Write the structure tokens for this entry.
Amino acid sequence: MPYDDLRGFLTTLEAQGQLLRITDEVLPEPDVAAAANAAARMGDAAPALYFDNVKGFTDARIAMNVHGSWANHALALGLPKETGTKEQIDEFIRRWAEFPVAPEWREDPPWAEHTMDGADVDIFKVLPLVRLNDGDGGFYIDKAAVVSKDPDDPDNSGKQNVGIYRIEVKGRARLALQPVPMHDIAQHLRKAEERGEDLPVAITLGNDPVISIVAATPMRYDENEYELAGALRGAPAPISRAPLTGLPVPWGSEVVIEGVIEGRKREIEGPFGEFTGHYSGGRRMTVIRVDRISHRTDPIFEHLYLGMPWTEIDHLMAAKTCVPLYQQLRADFPEVRAVNAMYTHGLVVIVSTATRYGGFAKAVGLRVLTTPHGLGYAATVIVVDEDVDPFNLPQVMWALSTRMNPEHDLVVVPNMPVLELAPQADTPGIVHKLIIDATAPAAPDHRGNYGNQVRDLPEAAEWLTRLRELAARH
Amino acid sequence: MNGPCPRCGHETIELLFTSPVPGVWDLLQCERCLYAWRTSEPARRTDRAAYPASFRMSQADIDAAPEVPSIPPLRSRP
């Protein structure tokens, strides 16, 4: 059964033993972030955390690490919490086949219960904000789904966007937002600024778990995130119209913040500890003026700790970075078997493919660089044969060990785009990219001395079952 | 309010918010570098002397900060 809001999902997490309530009084800093940092070190079944006794606040409610493990990610998709990583990605691919599923307009959103307008807007009265990492320049919102439209084509719902971007809170009604140039909202902002206009935005916090997943999915520019949410949920996503901007926002959000990115304005922002495991430097970034805040009674502030991988953000992005890359590669190369882009949002991508002829794997690797997501990520692409599971890193290392000849199999493509947060670039935003062809040469390429490959014995599968049964009896 | 800002040393500090339970903490912000902090945070985030050198920011750093994303030219109007 799909969740229509965050609260419904938290109830399930608690019932499944996947939510820890921290009832002792904690300091806003460093306790909330340190606990979420620690939760990320608890492994594949790490729980969500819920704080409601935060020093100095009278009624703070903070949920952290909601998507912070494969167990919680499985529950978000309505799967058993024991579902394996690869199985979750396969299920994601199966459900994507139902895309698009049109959203459902629903009346009386719970976030309409309370509003603040104009001079009364004070974000600090609504959200119990906390700093995450020592060097962060301030207090951030980093798990909100931000809604905007294409200023040149505002009636095109495909070109609207729902995405997660880092947002610094700089005042009662003033925010900063980071639009990475490769992301859809940057295209919206660019068009608005070319027109000399502000860009209206709706920042929605505390969403049902599938909204956060689709907002973290690098879809094509003209694909509608709500229509993917419907496919993943197996039911239309409930949405409502935000009262000030008219933007379509999730019906079940805890908080909806409306305002504009002020056109042609930049101001110092950051640093912020990023998903790369490094701080971004201080940069002059966009400014948002907040004009209206709507929120539920007793809103829950959903927040996300990120830092040295893996943390919640890696779990939130892992499956949904793999799947669109897989779909886009398969459209041109049906030989592609699987894509693992789970590491650092796909700064490394591992592709498994059948090879039709010599050089084929290198061509597949190059295609990764020209996918929408590959433009900003995919600094290194490793291509392996179809008999190598790209999610099985020991197998990938075997392919690198034996099927890659450094003399022939490294393709460096100079001066390619990458997101500016990638710390390895000499000039932020520009980097050489590397294709590693770790497939065995195919005719007419006859390099190497491969001979016959050793394969598992035909009887081994039966013995595996037998040994597992024996082991289970002990 | 008077500083200094833990991060840039500037002397003019603004009060952003104060704890709903009176007297527990204040949220402060530097007028120049916009660093924001809560007075109840550890000294490494609130005290100029203890603030790590690698996170410090100067007026020159602010002036040299890159623009992200860059502002495009206005479209020419027919």
Observations:
- The two ends of chain B are 51 Å apart (CA to CA).
- Helices of chain B lie at 43-46, 59-64.
- The interface with chain A takes residues 7, 16-17, 19-21, 24-25, 27, 29, 33-38, 40-42, 44-45, 52, 54-55, 57, 61-62, 65-69, 71-75 of chain B (CB under 8 Å).
